[in-house]
Each structure stands twice: as C-alpha cells, then as structure tokens.
Amino acid sequence: MSTMNRKLLESITDKMSRYVEHFDKNEIECLIREFYVLLGEQNAHGKAVPGLDRGKFRSVLHHAFNITDDMIMDGVFRTFDKDNDGFLSVKEWIAGLCVFLRGRLDEKIKYCFTVYDLNNDGYISRDEMFHLLKNSLTSQPNEEDPDEGIKDLVEITLKKMDHDHDGKLSLIDFVTAVKEENLLLEAFGPCLPDLTAIYTFEERVFKEEEEQ
Amino acid sequence: MGSALTRAAQWTSSSASGSRTLALTLLNQTLLSEILQFVEDVKSLHPQSAEVVFEEPLQWRTALQTSDLQAGYKISDSGVQSEQQDSSGRPLLLLSPPHVSVSCFSLLSELLYLCEDKEAELRACLEEIDKLRGKDRNAKVQLLQLLQRLNKQILDKVLQQISEQVHLHTSLMKNELDSLMLFCGDDDRSLLKSLRYISDFEFANGCRAPPHRQLLGEMAYVAVETYDTEPLYVSCSSRGAFLNKGVKVYEADDNDYEQTGETFEDLTSLLKKKSCYFSQNIHKEDPNRQQLRNPEPLTKWRENGLLSDTRKSEEQKSSSAEKGKSKAEFSLSSSPGRYSPQKSRTPARSRLKEALSESSPESEEEEAEQLERHPETNADLPSEQLRLQKLIKYLREGDQTVTVLTMCSLMELDLKQETYQLAIRDLGGLDVLLNILDTKEMRCIIGSLKILRVISHSAQIQRSMVKMKGVQSLVPLLDISLPELQALAAETLANVAKFRKARRTVRHCGGIDKLVRLLDCAPTSSSLSPREELDVEAARCGALALWSCSRSSRNKEAIRRAGGIPLLGRLLRSPHVNMLIPVTGTLQECASEESYRNAVRSEGMIKDLVRNLSSENQELQMHSASAIFKCAEDEKTRDLINQYRGPQRLALLLSKPENKQLLAAATGAIWKCSISPKNVTKFQEYRVLEKLVSLMSEQPEEVLVNVVAALGEFAKIQENRAVIGQSGGIEKLVRLLTGRNQALLVNVTRTLGICATDMKNMAIIDQLDGLRLVWSLLKNPSPEVQSSAAWALCPIIQNGKDVGESMRRLIGGFQLLIKLLKSTNNEVLASVCAVIAKITEDKEENVALLTDYGVVPLLANLTSTTDECLRRHLAEAIAYCCMWSQNRTAFGKAGAVAPLVRYVKSDNSQVHETTVVALYQLSKDVDNCISLHSNGVIQPLLELMGHDNEDVAFMAAGCVRNIRMLANANKFSKWID
C-alpha cells in the first residue's frame, strides 16, 4: 500500500466520485485500496495484469458475499466487466460495487437481468432459465424425467413474468414483474449479497481506513 | 451403579449372540466417561476401598495382550496373573487373551491405564458388570457408599439430559389428564368417578414421578376410579399409558411400578379398553365434549421427544456449517432434519383430525360442514388442484431460488378463497411454509409470510398453524431488524391470534414484548423517508397484532408491563387513519382494566381520543367512542372530555344512525359522559336529549341499552324529566319494560324510576299501568333486574295515584316481595326493604297483609347485616311495620332489637335517621325497652339527641323517654311494695 502513489489515488478518487453516486470520497478511496490489495495478492503469482481476473473476483464473491453458484459468479463478473476484456479495472470494480452494495431497486433490477442474460442478447430465454435453475430442484430418483420439474418451473415462471407473451423475458418484462413483486428480483439465483454480508464487507473495508 | 446402569443405560436389543450390548448413544457416552473417571480416581482417592476384593471377578473379552502387562505380574502358560491373590488363592487379575478377569478396583484401574481405547474396554466390562460385589465388611460399607455416590452423580447427569426431552411429553400428558378430569364427578354426564395424580408435587420438568422412575420415561402415576371396574393405577410414560401393580404413594415399592398390562397410546385409549362404561359413553358425548376427549394423540410424545434432540443438533451443525460454507447447497430436501414434515410436524391428514378435535363446538360443526363440502369444490377445480400440488412439491424440493419462484406463483392464486387455503394445508404446503420460517433465508421467509398473511384469515388455518407450532416460529421473526419482515410477521400474528389458545401461545413465547417493541417508532410527521415508512408500517402491524392479543386479560397486563401504554399513546397522535384504528382498537379493548383507564388519562390520550371522534373514518370514530365509553367511568376523565369539546363531537355522531355499531358506541360514550352534569348541559345545547328519545324505537338492543341509560342520567335534572315526558319518552320506556334483555331492563327500570319523580310523567306511567309492569319484573331471575325494578317501584308508589288500591289488586304481589326477602343479594334485599317501607308508610292495611305473610321474622333475620344500605332501608321497613303494636313485640321476640342498637353506633348518618325511628317505635314495648337498655342504647341516643335533624333528635329523645319512663315505673312499683 505504501508503494501506492498518493497522488494517483487522489486523482482516481476524484474522477470516480463524479461517476458513482452511492459512495462518498472516503469510501471510494477505501475501495480503491481494497482493489489494489486484491490485485497485489493476485500479482504474487505472476506478472502484472490490467485488473482483477475472473478467478480472484470469484473468490471475493464466494468468501465475502456467499455467492457460490458457478454460472451466477460468471454472470456477476460479466456484469461488472463492462468492456468485456476479462479483467476488472478499478473503475469497473467501484461502479459494479456501487450497485452491488447500495443500488436502488431499478439499478439492481437491471443488474440482475444482466447477470441472468447469459449470452448478453438482451433477453432471458427459456434455455437460459433452464440452465440457471438446473440444479435447483432435487428430483426424486423414481421420476422418469429428472428435468421435467425444471421445465415446468420455467413455464410457470415465464407465465408469470412474460408480459408480452413472446416466450422470453425482456428487460421490460423483468422490470414490470419485479416492481410488482420484489421477491422476483433474484428470481433465477442469488446474485446480490445479503444484508449481513454487505454489513461485514463494508465494516471491514471502510473501517480499516480509519484505523490507518 | 447397578440401578443407574439398568435404568439409564440404553441397551440394544439382544444381538444375534444372545447378549445385550450397550448402544452407541450420546447418553451412554456420558455414562461411560463418568464411570471411567471414577475407576481411574478410585485408587488414589480411596485406596482402601480400591483393594476390596469382589465376590466374583469381573470378566470380559479384552483387547489387551499378555505383552502389555509386565512389571509386577507373573507370566504363566495360561496367561498373566497378578501377585495379589484372594483368600482362596486365586489371582486377583488373570489375563489369558482374549479373556481377562479382575477382582478389585485398584487392578481394574491399572488395567484400564494400560489400554489404548479405555472406553471400549470399559464398555466390554460393563456389559458384564452386574456381578460386582464387595466382601470385606468394613471397607465394603465404604465402597458401597462410594458406589452409591457415583450412582447418584450419574443419575443427575442423565436426568439433566432427559429432562429436556421429557418436557414435551409432560405438557401433552397434562393436557390429556386435565381434559379427562373434566369428565369426573357424580352426575350422569361424567365418564369417570375420579381421576387424581398420586403425587401433588410436580418437578420443574413437569414430571411427578420420582427421579429414578423418570429415567425410564415415566412421568406420572394416576389413580382412576371408573364406574364399572376396580380402581385402576396407571403409569403415564413417554411410551404411553399402562397399568402398574398399584403405585399408591409417591415413593412406592419397586415392585409396584411393574407393568401389568399392555401399553396403550394414551390414557384415554387405556380407559376405553378397561372400562366399558367409559368407552360406551365417550362416543355418546355431545360434540363439545368430543373436542376434549382426544386432546392430542400421544404418538407425538415419542416423536417430539427423542427426535427433537437429534434434530436440534443436526440443525445446529448445519447452520454453523452454513455460515462458512456455500449457500448454494441450500436445498429444502438436502437437509432432511429440518424439512421433512414428519419430524417436527405431523402429516397433514392426521392434523386435520386434530384441528377438528381441538376447536370450539360451533366452529367444529362448521368445519365438519366445510370439510364435507370441500371435496366437491375440489372436483370442480381438478386442474387447479393439480397445479397447486405441483407447486407445493417444488416448494418442498427446490432450493431457495425455486422456493421464492414457487411462492410468487402461489401468490398469483386467489388465496383468499377458502378452497385454496385448505388445499394448501392439506397438501402439506402449510408445513413447508412454516418450516421456511425457521431458516435464515430472508427472501424465503418474506415470501412465506406473504402467503401466510393471506391464508391465516381462515379460522381453520389459524387453528392448524397454532397446532403446528407456527406461533413459535413467527414470534422470533419479530426480532429481525428488517421492518418489512417484522410487519408481515406481526400481521400474520394478528390474524392467527383470533382465539384464546393462540393468544396464550403468543404470550408464552414472549411475543407481547416483541410486539410492543415494534410500536417504538418515533416519526409522527406526515412526510416520511422510505425507511421510516417501513418502520411505521411495522408498528402498525404490531398494533394490529396487539389488538388481537388484547382480547385476553392476561395479555392486557403483559402489554402494560412491557411498557406498551406510552407507546400506544404516542402512536395515537399519528396522522394516519390506518395506524389509528388498531391503536385505538387496542386501547378500547384494554380500557376494561382500571390501570389502563388511569394511564389513558394521565398519558394525555383523552385529547386524542376525543379528537378522533371527528375523524372521517367511521371505524375510527367507533373505536374512539368505545374507548371513551369505557374510560369515562372516571370523573376526572369526564372533565377532560368536556374540556376537549367531547360532548359536541359525540352529539354529531348521533346524526349517523345507519351505522349501528357506531351508534351503539357513541350512545355509550354519551351515557358515561352524562354522569357529569357539566356534560349534560353541553349535550343540551346540541339537543341531544331529543335525539336520544327519538332513537328509542327500532334500534338494536345494544343501542337501546345505552340510550335508555343516558336518558336516566339526563333525567336527574328536573327540566329534562319534563322534556322526556313531553317528547313521548315515557311511553317508549314503558313499552321496553316487556323486553327480555336483562341489561336493558335494568337501565329502563332505573330511568323510569327517576322519571317517575315528575308528577306529569307519573300520570302517564299510571295510565299505561306501569306499576304492574315494573312490579312483574320482580319475577325476573336476574338479581340486577329485581333490585333495579324494586328501586323504580319506590318513586312510583310514592307518587302514583290510588297506589294502595292497585297494589292490592296485584295478585301475588306481596308474596313476591316476601319471597325476595329470602334473596342472598344485599342490593335486592335493600331495594325490597325500601319498597316495603313505601307500601307500609301510613297504610296499616298493608302492614296487616305483610304481617300475615310473615314479614316480621324475615326482616328480623336480616338485622345482623353489616351492609349500610341494607341497614338503612331495613330499619325503615321495621319502623313502619312497628306501627302495628303486635309487631313491636314480635320483633323483640325475634331478636331484632340488639342488632338494631348496633346500627346507631355505626357512622353512617342515613342509617341513624331510619334506625332511631325504628328504635323509637320498638321502645313502645316494655320488653324491648329492657333489651334496648341492656344493650347500651342510651349513650349513642343521647348523642343523637343533639342531631342537626330535628326529627332524628326528637325520635332519639322519644326513645330515651320511653326507656326512662319504664325505669321510673319500675322504681315506683318497688317503692310501693
């Protein structure tokens, strides 16, 4: 940390605080430090990289936020990684966390939709739903088609959420459904941290700074 | 140790080899380590005892090899042996693998010291241990003491563990026994002669059996006397109920505890088998008894008891594991301990029966009806039924994502329909929904609550939820600081707490405190942040739940103790009607307690309650009026109501006569407020009196009761009595005399009595034959009506025309009075005495009639009373009856004089006024004078001679004069002699 250029830190903080609405400057600074700590851990194994890679980010998701499903973790990374270069820059990191930790409902809806939209085509299709829910149902061993339950669930969900009846969920469908029933926000798997996780993370990252 | 081992240790059933082995359970593990500790310590702590040689050596199969033993042992062909020998020359330790035998504790502990797996060794040993006996006399006693101490220690340990499990059993057992006790007695509806516990002492865990029997799962012993068998002595244990050999005292002989018959599921089934009378009649019983009969199948004793432990530890394990581990593994079926319904909750079908057997009589019939109807309605919705079935299946089998999805789909259904509500329960959905409440998944819990909140409107679901211990799951949720969730949980509780058992359960779970804490949200301004809005909503739901709960008086007390009153007072200032309704509802429900009424006044809530009378919302107006109705019993409160312009607002409420509930509450409030003349004056400004009179026809009784009572208060002012008469109120009142509602009759007679002091009104009453109508109410079975009617008769008799004539025409009228003099109610007696005084006043023929009916001894009988009101009117009645000279003598003979003398010594001046008249009358009789004098009447009379009231002074003086004259005459006659 000490090696970090104080000036650089300040300039990034300044720049970011213009884009990010839910964090104050001090918090942004803490997050930047956290970013570089993580990056440092990552670098220990190899040469310098442009940002956090998928593996490191996944371990953060797993350990700090209890998000453990592979497909969801990838989805979250994809959502954070706006430029799709396989690495999270410090800007992507802060912008992502902004929604992730403190987003308003509409921001979170958009975020969740993107996570679930596995192929990034702007729709959550039947297939995508099926993939996301694949492991969610323990099927009885005596059942003929173990996937039948999932397929049925997909149909039930589609019936509930597909307002324009085109057989797939558009962002508008999703927004409408979630606004109607907030519980549908994380409809296809947990991709947001729960309150305790947020609290623990913020406590750790934002407190550390004060101690220093 | 023997008893501890045979009783407590859990043996497996005989294995293939025919010998029993110790089961691998937690309990046995504790036992083993206790014993191991003992054996290891015995050598160092009690060296002498440790050397005592056993009568027979302990023998078991050991894992030790001869090579393990070295120093101090002799190695021979047959194995290793110790150097010590017993009296007959046998070595005290002999090891010939795999067999070993040991004959004293010191060697045993050495041996165990050498073993690698001490517990396994000890286990093998214990399985043979019964042969343990000491020989040496002196040390033997010590050893026995030691063993006994160990025994006790072990038993204590075991008891601790067991008592947790036992707790559940006992409450069920108690329920059953309590219910059965209701059927004991001598009348022909009883099923049993008697049923009693052998011991009155109840341990903290609910058991009544001695501790060493509790270890066997026995909880209590009862003696049952049936109508057709010998007395039965029954053991109630966690396995069920069975006959014992005759446990008649708390610490019975060991043999008495022995089981003599088969084990039944519960006491009821045992009795059914043993007593024909019981089994025949239990089926004949009417439905409301049905509910008590099978309070809870005791099969659940077992289930809940032994499984609960494993379930708990499993849950703890899984929850602690969950913290560190991934949440993705969350799956409803993957943690069976928590989710399989048969563990904590019995399957839906059997629960259906339970729900039926528990409910109150009316709703039971209703439920039965609904159940019959139920399959038909289902037949109309086969596809819906199928869909529901599938959803509940997913609910049970899916992880939290699927659970939430499924619950969202369930919410799509019209859950307000009873068909769906019952179907969800019967398909096992209610189980799952309640189980979800015990998890840590907030989204799932919220989803579950959203469904429960709706379906818990059904009375049947409410009962099922309480049965399935849903309240116990709901209450802890109130502690989670997520206002949305708190609000939902509180709202659900508000629905569930619609019947007594549910309300009691909420209290027992500590729910009242938590609900009261929800009320603690500061903001009362109208602009709120979203977070504050949620808090306010939680507080509102908390108030709703408290409202439901406050119907039980114990809960009222609990709310007060939890500091709920000031919080309710603060919320009462909220600008939101939907908040005010439950808050006012709770307050008016609680205002039946005096502590609340005082608090409502001292916390300044009257102002808010009065202000809400002018709310737009009729429901709020109604609750506010009800609260005022209850609180206005107190004079200071009435003054406050006046100060906050309460009368004006109440007067306005009378203009909405179509809302009967509101009208009843408003007229009630007017009644209580009009007890203060200040308020009456205010009411008159708004012509409330005329409105009340006009309300006296074609209103429901609950309105009439209040209207008539309010008129009574108004009529205390002379002009108002005239107004009532002029506006046709008397006719309406007299018409109401023929009604049946006792509360109404009490108020009507009271008001009529007050109105009868106006001569014009009296003329109307006479004309309508009011005297006869009121008189006939003396026949009413209710003492309140009797006394109220009698009081009303007094002014009517006093002011009526030709009353003497019309009274004598009342057939049996006087007999009725005589009959009421035998009443046990002081109020009735006082009022009847007052009537007697009125009808005998200056009417000697009535005195004669009453004397014929035997009024004198009856009145004389009453003189011993200490009730001041009764004393006053009794003395008056006696005074008038004494106009007839024979009666004076008769009263004296009946012993009425001495008690009457005591009356003048009381400090009630009204009593004095009537008593001196009676005494004066009585003193006209010579014998009475003597007893008056001997009872020390002179001194108090001399004081009364200085009374402000001239009549009193005159009568007192007259009485003294009569006594004095007698004394003089006496002296004179002596002198002559």
UniProtKB/TrEMBL annotation, chain A:
Give the protein name, as stated in the record. Answer: EF-hand domain-containing protein
Which organism does this record belong to?
A: Mugilogobius chulae (yellowstripe goby)
Q: Does the keyword Metal-binding apply?
A: yes
Q: Report the InterPro entries cross-referenced here.
A: EF-hand-dom_pair (IPR011992), EF_Hand_1_Ca_BS (IPR018247), EF_hand_dom (IPR002048), Recoverin (IPR028846)
The EF-hand domain, residue ranges: 68-103, 104-139, 149-184
- Source organism's superkingdom? Eukaryota
Keyword Repeat on this protein? yes
Gene3D superfamilies per UniProt: EF-hand
Output one GO MF annotation.
calcium ion binding
Q: CDD domains recorded for this chain?
A: EFh (cd00051)
Sorted alphabetically, the keyword list is:
Calcium, Metal-binding, Repeat
UniProtKB/TrEMBL annotation, chain B:
Where along the chain is composition biased (Polar residues)? 331-347
Tell me where the ARM repeats sit in this chain: 812-854, 936-963
**Skewed-composition ranges (Basic and acidic residues):** 299-328
Matching entries from Pfam families are given as: Arm
Q: Signal sequence: where?
A: none
Kindly give the InterPro entries that the UniProt entry links to this protein. Answer: ARM-like, ARM-type_fold, Armadillo
Which SMART domains does the UniProt record give?
A: ARM (SM00185)
Which SUPFAM superfamilies does the protein's record reference?
A: ARM repeat (SSF48371)
The UniProt annotation puts the region (Disordered) at 282-382
What is the recorded name of this protein?
Armadillo repeat-containing protein 4
The protein's organism comes out as Mugilogobius chulae (yellowstripe goby)
**Organism lineage string:** Eukaryota, Metazoa, Chordata, Craniata, Vertebrata
